[in-house]
Design goal:
- The radius of gyration is 20 Å and the shape is globular.
- The protein is built from ten helices and 17 strands.
- Strand 16, helix 10 and strand 17 form a beta-alpha-beta unit.
- It has two domains: about 200 residues, Quinone Oxidoreductase, Chain A, domain 1; about 130 residues, Rossmann fold (3-Layer(aba) Sandwich), CATH 3.40.50.
- Strands 3, 4, 5, 8, 9, 16 and 17 form a seven-stranded mixed sheet that branches.
- Helix 4 crosses helix 5.
- The chain is α/β, with parallel strands linked by helices.
Length: about 325
């Protein structure tokens, strides 16, 4: 089969991923073999490919990146139940967990310390075929196309989980910083809670997207510090940050009202934490399989729009470069 192999992490312009002929994998016990139909391109893929997360990630090289996948089952491994050849299913970054630890047993399986991550500790979806753990695949509703469904398995579940952690209701005002792959999904989930939503972004294409999706207000952060504008008419109850910027995270914290909630979906440091304001900072990573099913249900009902653009699998390097150049409006999706 054809697949992209990350052989040695480095700047994307230097060609660290190579389009290669590799052996097609075979499903082991409890696994399924998928013919990949679509695989979203995530900023996490770019971080791994460029070596930002060394030495822990990737777990090995060469490795096939890609962790938001829609595919059709081609073969079943031993002991697989409830699935059949021909089923169209999706795979999220949470490839598998131990199922036994305190996190797995308490509904926080994404925190399992022995979990496998698709495309980071096992081979992923930048390929024509991949294997997946049968317990961690999700049937994709027929109403969703391959290209619009694939991003649900990373930005979709990530945005949904972050909004759940924000504990929003109709009386709240929430700001979403960064209206990209994850942010445009989180914005829509926040709108569904009834909260007043504010999209904060320095990108003209993302401001346009936020307006199309129904944000109550859109702030152009390229024109200066947005804190005063956020504080002007209503207190900010919660802020969700998906822009990979320490400056943005700290701006969001300054904009929060006393007792406000900051949900952070990127790596960052906090420069100053005013303890007397009793604000809460929560990190947010992915979500559970139960949440994933809820995301698919919402999307199938027509209440979630996925801004996605298809590209051929062979253009994976170009897709990652576009992500680095910040020219992507929503989500790029690779199609073999």
């Amino acid at each position: 089969m054809k697949a992209f192999l990350l052989k040695r992490p480095g700047p994307i312009a230097t060609g660290p991923i190579v389009y290669s002929d590799v052996s097609c994998p075979e499903p082991g016990p409890g696994q399924v073999l998928l013919r990949v139909l679509a695989c979203g391109v995530c900023h996490s893929n770019l971080h791994m490919v460029e070596g930002d997360w060394l030495p822990s990630t990737p777990a090995f090289t060469p490795i096939i990146p890609g962790h938001e996948v829609v595919g059709r089952i081609e073969a079943l491994g031993a002991s697989v139940a409830g699935l059949a050849v021909g089923d169209r299913v999706g795979v999220q970054p949470l490839f598998s967990t131990c199922g036994r630890c305190a996190f797995c047993r308490s509904g926080r399986e994404e925190l399992c310390q022995t979990k496998e991550i698709t495309g980071e500790s096992v081979n992923g979806g930048y390929a024509e075929y991949m294997v997946a753990d049968a317990l961690f695949v999700h049937k994709v509703p027929e109403v969703l196309s391959d290209v619009e469904a694939a991003p649900l398995f990373c930005p979709g579940i990530t945005g949904y989980a972050a909004v759940k952690k924000a504990r929003l209701d109709a009386a709240d005002q929430v700001a979403i910083f960064g209206i990209g792959g994850v942010g445009h999904m989180a914005l829509q989930f926040a709108i569904l809670t009834g909260a007043r939503t504010v999209a904060v972004t320095g990108s003209a294409r993302h401001r346009e997207l936020a307006q199309e999706l129904g944000a109550s207000r859109v702030i152009d952060s390229s024109q200066g510090d947005p804190v005063e504008e956020l504080r002007r008419d209503r207190a900010l109850d919660a802020a969700l940050v998906f822009a990979p910027s320490e400056d943005v995270v700290n701006t969001a914290l300054r904009a929060l009202k006393p007792g406000g909630r900051l949900i952070v979906g990127v790596n960052s440091s906090i420069r100053f934490f005013p303890f007397a304001l009793e604000q809460t900072i929560v990190g947010s990573l992915l979500g559970t399989r139960e949440m994933m099913e809820r995301v698919l249900s919402i999307a199938a009902s027509g209440r979630l729009h996925v801004a996605a653009e298809a590209m051929p699998l062979a253009a994976a390097s170009d897709a990652l470069q576009a992500l680095k150049d910040r020219t992507v409006r929503g989500r790029l999706v690779l199609v073999p």
